[in-house]
Amino acid sequence: MKKLVFILASLLLFSCQEEKPAETGQAKIKLKLNWFPEAEHGGYFHGVQSGIYKQAGLDVEIVSGGPGNPVETEVAIGRFEFGIANADKILAVRENGLKVVGLLAPYQTSPRCLIAHQNEPLETFADIAKANRLIVNDTKPFYKYLVHKHPEIKKNQTVAYSQALFLGDFQSIMQGYINSEPLIIRDKGFDIKTLSLADLGYNPYASVLICREELINTNPELVKAMVQATQKAWIAYLKNPSSANKVIIEKNPELGTTLQRSAELLPGMMSADPFGQMTPERWNTLAKQLHECGVLKAIPTDLHKVYNTSFLSDQ
């Protein structure tokens, strides 16, 4: 109850601080990432680096995320105009009263995967139970769904995400993104194998651009400008990621030489017409899955409000 009161109070506070045009005539907005800068955010960085956002009248500041960053909460209370979140998280937080809305989905195929050392018998999802431990965030919706489909996994010890721990424990399994951690780990000389959560039928949209419902109601032109500029930026990034990648590397040097290869894997997971499209069928399937595994108490009756594709350009 106290948490809800805090959120409501914050909403009142930040709703009075609507984004205002800068002296240059550009609307100053902040975009909060859900993790440290990586290829999964490439289109957003390209929008800044190439000037696409400025051409749309937007002065966009990208703020890095990381562990424990409540992006959805910060967007819902107006601390950030826009943010990045995955579709399953959007549904989960909306049930708790945070009215954020998905606007554009770069990833049409979820990059979420499980990673094991080559010697580990990870051929099917049932094999996960044989691991020494799972290096995963066990509060994430994907883990809840995984346990729902394979209850035997409940017996596995779970520990917080740590690449160092995974590299030192050859009987462990770790969560990751198929175009990120596997590349980094192989570059360090380790032989690994992966399983894609999408192959289990769990395929939420990822790296979704979100805003709060109130912003759509009070400033739809700003939302439209951001969405359509982001579409343009992502399409350009997928064709030539080099300039944006230079900025991403500066902000996250650990990516090293893997960033370019990571970006090269994106087009196959981001194909949609128009770019960023989302369908009611996909959202409905995801809501049912989250309800089945207990993440949602009920399937939302306002599912049509969870996402909004009306701002997308037909480019």
UniProtKB/TrEMBL annotation:
Residues 39-244 form the SsuA/THI5-like domain. InterPro entries: NMT1/THI5, SsuA/THI5. GO terms for biological process: thiamine biosynthetic process. It holds the Pfam family NMT1. Gene3D superfamilies: Periplasmic binding protein-like II (3.40.190.10). Transmembrane segments: none annotated. PANTHER family: 4-AMINO-5-HYDROXYMETHYL-2-METHYLPYRIMIDINE PHOSPHATE SYNTHASE THI11-RELATED (PTHR31528), THIAMINE BIOSYNTHESIS PROTEIN HI_0357-RELATED (PTHR31528:SF3). This is SsuA/THI5-like domain-containing protein. It comes from Lentisphaera araneosa HTCC2155.
